[in-house]
Amino acid sequence: MLTTAVIDRVVAAALAEDAPWGDITSEALIPAEATATAVLVPREPGVFSGGDVFAAAFHLTDAATEVEVRATDGTAFAPGDVLAVATGPARAVLTAERIGLNFAQRLSGIATLTAAYVAAVDGTGARIVDTRKTTPGLRAFERHAVRSGGGHNHRFSLSDAVMAKDNHLAVLTRAGLSVTEALLAAKARLPHTTHIEVEVDRLDQLDAVLAAGVGTIMLDNFSLDDLRAGVAHIAGRATVEASGGVSLETVRSIAETGVDVISVGALTHSARALDLGLDVDIAG
């Protein structure tokens, strides 16, 4: 979850990276008593995310800066809308502006792309989810942005759920172990609250996985025909997730095969920063 503690830790690190010994330009050129107002305005339509992150960039630079976030996360906006306004000591506003803007652009870009995927599968019943293909250190931020766009989150980390992928199954097979028996043994060792998901890349792998009674089966890089066959074969005995080869052009067809979940790495690894502007007016 995107808590205040997480926001402050990540934003403080970004500010320290950007101005490790202070903003020498603002300190040399801007009078200490000057004040400034920065207005966050989009130059293209989109979905907003990261209001609290944007505000933290200014508050952590100087607590005297006041930030009014006018758009709630998940709000659609048009060019020219005022999303947020920051007012305070001019030196502090100028120091914080790039970090605040970077985060707002990045997170709004993810939210906007996610919203497009969600709209593309509307009415199918399929849920759009993200993956662990996130920017190191920014997972909580980027996954919040996915939720802002109407999407859902997959497991947050390797510690949250069991997910046996092709490499795990390959190790079992080379060791001469039964996939079913290995999964049943894992279930016996794990708490009953731990969810188990297994990735398969062929239809003939399904029966061994189904025999273990796992919660979710991921059909990875399946053709549309094989997805339909997989859904029919699983027949409600597990949640069906589709992954691989997902784009805005293909996601509707994938959803219409009857899968329950579609995981899309592109939501975070390929979203472009949205074009937002931060207009600064200095007084005094």
Automatic annotation (TrEMBL):
Keywords: Glycosyltransferase, Pyridine nucleotide biosynthesis, Transferase. Pathway: Cofactor biosynthesis; NAD(+) biosynthesis; nicotinate D-ribonucleotide from quinolinate: step 1/1. The keyword Glycosyltransferase applies. It catalyses: nicotinate beta-D-ribonucleotide + CO2 + diphosphate = quinolinate + 5-phospho-alpha-D-ribose 1-diphosphate + 2 H(+). Its EC number is 2.4.2.19. Residues 110-279 form the Quinolinate phosphoribosyl transferase C-terminal domain. It is an enzyme of class 2 (transferase). Residues 23-108 form the Quinolinate phosphoribosyl transferase N-terminal domain. InterPro entries: Aldolase_TIM, NadC, NadC/ModD, Nicotinate_pribotase-like_C, Quinolinate_PRibosylTase_N_sf, Quinolinate_PRibosylTrfase_C, Quinolinate_PRibosylTrfase_N. GO terms for molecular function: nicotinate-nucleotide diphosphorylase (carboxylating) activity. CDD domains: QPRTase. It comes from the Bacteria. Involved in the catabolism of quinolinic acid (QA). Belongs to the NadC/ModD family. This is nicotinate-nucleotide diphosphorylase (carboxylating). It comes from Microbacterium dauci.
